[in-house]
Amino acid sequence: MAEQRERIQDIAHLGRVELLTPKPNESLWYFRDVLGMEVVHAQGQSVYLRGYGDYAAATVKLTEAKNAGVGCISWRAASAQALERRAKAIDATGLGLGWNESDFGRGRSYRFRDPDGHLMEVYYEENKYVAPEELRSTLKNLPQKYTGRGVNVRRIDHLALLAKDVAANRTFAQDLLGFQLREQVRYNNGATEIGSWLSPSPVHHSVAYVADIKGGSGRLHHFSLWVDNREDVLRAATVITEAGVFIEAGPSMHNNSQGFYLYTYEPGGNRVEVYSSSFLVMAPDWEPVTWNEEERGTGTYWGAALPESFIQYATPNVEGDAAGKTPEFPVFF
Ligand code: FE
Hints:
The structure is a single chain. 17% of the residues lie in helices and 34% in strands. Strands 17-10-11-12-9-13-16-15-14-18 form a ten-stranded mixed beta sheet. Strands 2-3-4-1-5-8-7-6 form an eight-stranded mixed beta sheet, covered by helices on one side. The two termini are 32 Å apart. Strand 7 (109-113) and strand 8 form a beta hairpin. The chain is of the alpha+beta class. The chain binds fe (iii) ion.
């Protein structure tokens, strides 16, 4: 067996995602009333929310902005020492932006950009959520009661980010953040890296990097929230349809990650996935699974193919083909 470098395990999990929205009131309605998240705080142009199963005070930050897209992506370090180690290592790459003051519910963070320009940070200190009386669960091990409002998502799950150079961002996530590569899509006999799915924890993927066919930078393909089972995804389709929100794809099942999915656009324009049934990866010596063009197909295990908009649209939106040419290959992920 080939000798492997010991994997860095300084990042524990995806902690918080900031979404930018040009329609803050409508986006807040979507996350609070349709997805069923709780509002815990408001500050400046931002509102902080959480899923009922999230242990942290806040896991989603909605911030008013001119264009839709992803703001800061926050990763929780495994310890205070791990945070210092990651800050030092990232600083040495030249991608570091420096230390940032504490945000709501947690301590200071070290900010940086991934090679594609997505804003990220690592932090350690975090306030655990303490439910007010009316939101206290009768279950001692549940941070907040299941309210049954809307889709009632349990927790945040993952992000899919677009990148001009998937390999550069995948390598950064592996080498600097210590993420384990779980699955890949490679075309042209493996020469073209279309997408890579990675995670610092047993969650199948916390981040996916997929080729930006329009040559944009720092763009978001989708943000995903977890429900406990497939029936919840089907129920979400009904709840979301009754709310008059556009469903782009699903409910259906992906081939890689085995995720059961439903994609909608929140009113600000960001694509949001309601997700379940993916598998956990426990193996420390996990061998990444690679899919070629034929095996990958349309990205679905069964059900309808993903629509053209799934390939063409991301936030912030780029009109036409920014690179001035049509892509050589269809990108399904
Ligand atoms: Fe996803």
